[in-house]
UniProtKB/TrEMBL annotation, chain A:
PANTHER family: AMINO-ACID ABC TRANSPORTER PERMEASE PROTEIN YHDX-RELATED (PTHR30614:SF37), MEMBRANE COMPONENT OF AMINO ACID ABC TRANSPORTER (PTHR30614). One of its GO terms (cellular component) is ATP-binding cassette (ABC) transporter complex. It comes from the Bacteria. This is Amino acid ABC transporter membrane protein 1 (PAAT family).
Automatic annotation (TrEMBL), chain B:
It is found in: Cell inner membrane; Cell membrane. This is Amino acid ABC transporter membrane protein 2 (PAAT family). It comes from the Bacteria. It comes from Ancylobacter aquaticus. One of its GO terms (molecular function) is transmembrane transporter activity.
């Protein structure tokens, strides 16, 4: 008799390497070994190379004197400052571009995005052309265009374009009035803070009152009055302590005021307009994602058009708009590293550029630079996930 | 028609002809009232919009066409008041913008690479054409190998390099060149192949698996690798052209295409790793993907230029373009992985379960069932990441590689063409080129999306 059924009651006649569990552990071990080996060989090579090229290691260089100047510093910095200080200056410059760029891009992006849905043919076409052209040109091309073709072509300081005699645009950048804080300016600042606090408080109170009694208060108008009135009152009481120093043309350049360097203007404007094209598309798809039934239902409840927009459409559209919007903000921040192409002193240009060339400590410097951007990404992603959880539709 | 009854009742049983709508509600006038001048704000916007168009478009047309200078030998032609675009400048610099400093007598090689790429790409992009599998193989595998030989001149002497580092008998016998073929290397290669085959096959067989199939797989890997080494190694009689001489649109396309071709397999592996059940593999994939996605490309290029050489063994001094390519490939692989993951997630679970139910192994399931569907779904995503990669290639000018934009910037400094309009002419030309490439690709991606939507309607 031959045993046709195979081993009865015994284990299946198959090798243990066909066991999914064993395979999975084996594969993971192999992956781990490969990664560890790569890491080990990179470290070994790096050690040999650094020793051969006589490059110092460690982060001690951060305390050394940098010895180079930076043409835009938000905090006091001189050639005798340390590399650590230069790093902070670069980081602040990056954040400055990011913040100003994000604000501008959001404003332009929302306007263009709504414009793309406008019933007005002219507005719609202009918005579409804006999006298609700006989206399809490389950002570095646009930055170079603004820098070389627009700002460098501005007239010199003597013939600068003046806006209301307060702001001057020339090939040296934009000069804006500098605010001067006299005695009592602190009170005005406190008044602004108080006004914001009161406005938030009032909004909450008005909302809960409406919930209870159904009575509606014109929150926006009252708050606007509060926000303008209170600081104004403080100004009058303290006798206008905040004045502006208007730039004046003396000789070949301006004296006084704050000079915004052309690199900053070119970078910020180019990044803001470029990112705005993407934001516009997000806004458009967000608004389109709210079904028309919502509008009809709101109208049949008796809400006016503006109320429908504010209370029904926008809250639902924001749910769709905000996640891609944040990744656009992140893109803008990352793209601000293109500054190095026109010499704006951002983190990459100052730290991974000049400091790297001077010290040669590529590993530390590039690791720090990448770490900063990575940290920004992780923070954004965490905040975003938390937000997503809060606004996500709760389904059955 | 109507009916009148005896008692005088009148019943009308036919509708009255509807009156035409009022004149103001139809035609161009009504459309304009409705769409352009429906309110104060709308009217204001219309007027402002028309003013903006009038302010931008006619000067642009005048600059690019009406006032433009079309012929000339040097800057003299483009000097003068009210002169538009200086097209002779572009004409003079055209070769540089396309080929960089690639030797003029060798430019036909670049032309062949461009033409072959287009010839392979067009049938790949037309969705309804047959032979997709072989077409894809030709474009993604054969074309890069051949293009490498054509562009660099081949003959990179990889065999000697490999022999020196990993050779078995090289040290014993020494070099033996016969007809330009390094015989010792190939004997060595065959020996290595047999050894590795025996080792892997034996190990698998020892563990109770199918040693034979493992050995055959190894043989195929070594065979295809050997073929690539052979093609790159053989002296085809072309002059060697350093990558430092490459430039212009050539470099832009080389970086973008290499980035996509290299990132596709890597991205697929990473995407599979990220969706894997194995925690270590998943974690490693997630770290890799999120790391590259979290940093700007510039820092990646700085990493590739300054940091990568430190990580490699002493004496290996990879080419500047190659280093940038490695950086770009790793960077875009992370983005590609996310695109592919989107496709994998869109495949319904039933497909996986069905594949497992008919007894396919994991690799068969992925190769035959899941990936073909997933990759077709993400074609628009792949094209979109190609567009952003194409735009991002401009960044290499920061690490002193002269791509199209870098070459353009360099040409501005030529004193022979120093005129007030040179800068604008250059930007206008480059803008049109970039726009045509990117806009064309984005239209294509939209077209594919629409096509795929109709076939997958549920």
């Amino acid at each position: 008799m031959t045993d046709l059924a195979g081993p009865v009651g015994g284990r299946a006649k198959s090798s243990f390497i066909n066991d999914p569990k064993v395979r999975s552990i084996g594969l993971q071990l192999i992956a781990l070994v490969v990664v560890v080996f790569l890491g080990w060989s990179f470290t070994e090579n790096a050690r040999d190379n650094l020793a051969a090229q006589k490059i110092a290691t460690g982060f001690g260089f951060l305390d050394n004197t940098a010895g180079f100047g930076i043409n835009q510093t938000l905090i006091p910095y001189s050639e005798t400052s340390t590399y650590g200080r230069a790093f902070v200056v670069g980081l602040l410059n990056t954040l400055l571009v990011a913040v100003v760029g994000i604000i501008l891009a959001t404003i332009i992006g929302f306007l263009v995005g709504i414009g793309r849905l406008s019933k007005n043919f002219v507005v719609r076409t202009i918005s579409t052309v804006y999006v298609e052209v700006l989206r399809n040109l490389p950002p570095l091309f646009q930055i170079l265009f603004w820098y070389l073709a627009v700002l460098s072509a501005m007239p010199g300081p003597r013939n600068s374009i003046s806006l209301f005699g307060e702001v001057f645009i020339s090939n040296r950048g934009i000069i804006i009035p500098r605010p001067l804080f006299g005695d009592g300016a602190g009170i005005v600042v406190w008044a602004i803070g108080l006004a914001i606090f009161l406005a938030i408080l009032f909004r909450h109170w008005a909302a809960s009152r409406q919930e209870e009694t159904g009575r509606y208060l014109p929150v926006l108008r009252i708050n606007l009055g509060l926000l303008i009135g209170l600081p104004l009152l403080a100004m009058i009481v303290t006798g206008f302590p905040i004045t502006f120093e208007v730039p004046e043309l003396k000789g070949f350049n301006f004296v006084g005021g704050i000079q915004v360097i052309p690199e900053f203007v070119a970078l910020t404007v180019a990044l803001a307009t470029y990112t705005a094209a993407f934001i516009a598309e997000n806004v458009r798809s967000g608004i389109q994602s709210v079904s028309h039934g919502q509008t009809e239902a709101a109208h049949s409840l008796g809400l006016r058009h503006a109320q429908t927009l504010r209370l029904v459409i926008i809250p639902q559209a924001m749910r769709v708009i905000i996640p891609p919007l944040t990744s656009q903000y992140l893109n803008l921040t990352k793209n601000s590293s293109l500054a190095v192409g026109i010499g704006y002193p951002d983190l990459v240009a100052v730290f991974a550029g000049t400091a790297l060339n001077q010290t040669g400590q590529a590993i530390e410097i590039i690791a720090i630079t990448m770490g900063v951007y990575l940290l920004l990404s992780i923070i954004t992603a965490t905040v975003m996930n938390a937000y997503n959880k809060r606004v996500a539709l709760v389904e059955r | 028609m109507s009916m009148t009854f005896d008692d005088g009742t009148f019943i009308r049983n036919e509708m009255v002809e509807p009156l035409p709508p009022p004149k103001q509600r139809i035609g161009a006038v009504a459309w304009m009232r409705e769409n352009l001048f429906s309110g104060v704000l709308n009217t204001l916007l219309t007027v402002l919009g028309i003013l903006a168009v009038v302010w931008v478009v006619p000067p642009l047309v005048r600059f690019m066409i009406i006032d433009a200078v079309w012929t000339g030998e040097n800057r003299e032609a483009c000097l003068g008041p009210e002169v538009g675009a200086c097209w002779p400048f572009i004409h003079a610099k055209f070769g540089q913008l396309i080929y960089g400093f690639y030797p003029i007598s060798e430019r036909w090689r670049v032309d062949i690479v461009f033409a072959a790429g287009a010839l392979l790409l067009v049938p790949l992009m037309v969705l309804s054409w047959p032979f997709k599998r072989i077409n894809a193989f030709l474009f993604f595998v054969a074309y890069p190998v051949v293009a490498f030989v054509l562009l660099t001149g081949g003959n990179i002497n990889a065999s000697a390099f490999l022999l020196e580092r990993f050779g078995l008998i090289g040290g014993l016998v020494g070099d033996a060149q016969i007809g330009g073929v390094n015989l010792v290397f190939w004997v060595d290669y065959v020996l290595t192949t047999l050894l590795v085959m025996a080792a892997i096959g034996g190990l698998i067989a020892l563990l109770g698996g199918s040693g034979r199939s493992a050995a055959i797989t190894t043989l195929w890997v070594f065979l295809s690798l050997g073929l690539v080494i052979f093609i790159w190694d053989v002296d085809v009689g072309l002059d060697y052209v350093e990558t430092r001489q490459w430039g212009g649109l050539l470099v832009t396309l080389v970086i973008a295409v290499t980035g996509i071709v290299a990132s596709l397999p890597l991205g697929i592996l990473l995407a599979l790793g990220r969706r894997s059940q194995m925690p270590v593999v998943r974690l490693l994939s997630v770290i890799f993907i999120e790391f590259w996605r979290g940093v700007p490309l510039i820092t990646v290029l700085f990493f590739a230029t300054y940091m990568l050489p430190l990580f490699l063994p002493q004496g290996t001094n990879p080419d500047a373009l190659l280093r940038a390519l490695v950086g770009v490939a790793l960077f875009s692989a992370a983005y590609m992985a996310e695109v592919v993951r989107g496709g994998l997630q869109a495949i319904p679970k039933g497909q996986y379960e069905g594949a497992m139910a008919v007894g396919l192994t994991w690799s068969q399931m992925m190769r035959l069932i899941v990936l073909p569907q997933a990759l077709t779904l993400v074609i628009p995503g792949i094209v979109n990441s190609f567009i952003s990669l194409f735009k991002d290639t401009t960044l290499v000018l920061i690490v002193s590689i002269f791509d199209f934009l870098g070459q353009l910037r360099a040409s501005f400094t030529d004193p022979n063409w120093a005129t007030p309009v040179t800068l604008y002419t250059g930007f206008a030309f480059a803008g049109v080129v970039y726009f045509l490439f990117c806009f064309g690709m984005s239209r294509y991606s939209l077209f594919v999306e629409r096509r795929l939507n109709t076939s997958h309607r549920h």
